[in-house]
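In response to reviewer comment 3 from the previous cycle, which asked for concrete evidence that the modeling workflow produces usable outputs, we include below a single protein chain processed end to end. The sequence was submitted unchanged, and the resulting structure tokens are shown without manual editing.
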Amino acid sequence: MREKGGLIGGKFAESSIDLRALQTGMKFKGKSFIAIVLTPEQPFADWFGEIDRIISRSPGFFIDRPIILDVRGQRIAIEDLETVLAGLAERSVRVMGIDGVAGTRLKPGMPPSFSGGRLTSDVEVPDAQAAAAPADKDEKQGASNVASSAEPKDAAEKKAANGTQSAKSDRENEPKALVVSEPVRSGQRIMHPEGDVTVIGAVSSGAEVIAGGSIHIYGALRGRALAGVAGDDDARIYCTKLDAELVSINGLYKVADDFDETVMNEPAHIRCEKEALIFEKLG
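The workflow returned the following structure tokens.
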């Protein structure tokens, strides 16, 4: 099941304040957080059934997580919204905000209206220079070939030096991997949306590892592993023993009962292909 755009999705919640307008000695800071986005669907009984299925497979899935209820584009009555909120509260799913409903429509005691944020799976649009027309590129390439044949030696050396500096700068700007050199215990959550995560040790049941890139676990995976949360379909999950509660790559997830039995308790490699999670043995 695809988390984003369906039952479950993710967003970066961001806020900003014009500090120049504030004449005070108080210090203000901004932070960004990843929130789970739930999109209720009719009939609610079926939707809650899917929520119950997730909770039964992974009881701690929603614990201590920021939850946004997304009803944008839906003609949902306030009474129906009350039903959804009550059903979630019964399941200990705490909603911090509602996206898609004006605050004036909400009743006292309801979570506040929430707007903004961006989906974690958004794809950045290339700039104009990167999207140059093929014809222009061919013309420039031809001119470059002519010029390079007559290029002075010192200019060529300078160009090579600039290329080396540019490559070094690109490496410095690459997302850095997070290495956890000890086991991840039950109740712990390792979150690194900027890149890969490597755990040297086991990930216990009830523990969670979240990465913007791939996840490498040199030990047993008994908890939850969520890779590619920043929208990376090429992210992978590797572990020396697969006994997980849940695995996910870019919002596509499977719980333990849905795993391929041939890889259970074996060294495993999990990848995403054509909107499906593929489980393979390592070695």
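The chain has five helices and 17 strands. We consider this sufficient to address the reviewer's concern, and the full set will be provided in the supplementary archive.
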